[in-house]
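re the bet — no i am not wrong, look at it urself. input seq straight from the record:
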Amino acid sequence: MALKKKPVNGMKDILPSEMAVRMYVTELIRKTYAEFGFSSIETPAVEHIGNLLSKQGGENEKLIFKILKRGEKLDLSKATTEENVTDSGLRYDLTLPLSRYYANHMNELPAPFKALQIGSVWRADRPQRGRFRQFTQCDIDILGDPSYLAEIELILATTTVLGKLDFHNFTIRINDRKILKAMASKAGFEPADYGKVFIILDKMDKIGLEGVREELLESYPEEKVTTYLAQFDENVDPAVLMEGSPLPEIISVVDKVKTADFRVMFDPTLVRGMSYYTGPIFEIAMDEFGGSVGGGGRYDEMIGKFTGHDTPAVGFSIGFERIIMLLLERGFEVPDAKEKVAFLIEKKMPSERLADVFAEAQKERDAGKAVWISIMKKNKKFQKEQLAQEGYTDIREFFAE
């Protein structure tokens, strides 16, 4: 039976043209975030299964790629549950691994600590436009800073990157988990109900106010639902809802000093899916995508799950894969790319002459150019056309004499 050529469903092969864009964007992100004081770190792709299933990741915990125990530890004859045969899994995001990392190394790190992480994560999700089962996440986090200076820094750093990539007129939606809980409490919902209520509220942009009302009425009394949804009426003054939160200050400062073309908008319906958020939350909305291309928030209680002592923490994840997709769709070309030169060599060439060709190629590389060396094919015209499509604007032929 022939081996399968296509990648596993939900995974993708990356061709050189896309890889060039990805490498450029990655380098731009690293450089920009470094200017804001963030330090690059790396965590393993594999995490302890107990950490992954610690009820921090919301619905993503249902999407974990679990890893079987190995060797003598894998005893299928005695296994009665999935937990008997797994001890680890592929990370579903970068925040949980970062929290473990910080708990393990906090005595070796500055306070506050500003971390940058770029790496693959895995979720057994349903593949769709801009969503894969293996994808790259790009996170910046500030650990150990309880003030809203951290939120301001994260928003400014992330939007600066987007501005450098020529994105305009996008929106940073912002809310606060404490506001969400206060609104639910005011309507009479119990804390045990919040999770389910927020999951339904999070569908507002897809099913509208009436759709949310219908779903809530399936589980809760009409009086509570009516009182709750009345708080989302467009006539309600946002300042009243934000009173006592740091959101007005965050929005004000960001608006005054931003360098990119975007707006910050308070959105009381913003929920974010992760259950670990404890304070301000934010999301990037772009009309050209029709959805979120990044998000994050404050998670002051997660590190305490490892250490026993809560540590202030807040992070922002840029939607790397979706940003790359949008750039490719608009025909983005890497600026200031190296000039590409192709050397086509006659098949039978004496070693002395061949050495001269390689020496000339090295001179071009020393001058900052990219040089391709290949044997000249019989169909030279087609070969040149292919090279031209790859960006080789200077094609030279070398013969034995």
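see?? The radius of gyration is 26 Å. told u. also The chain has two domains: 16-187+232-329, 340-398. so pay up
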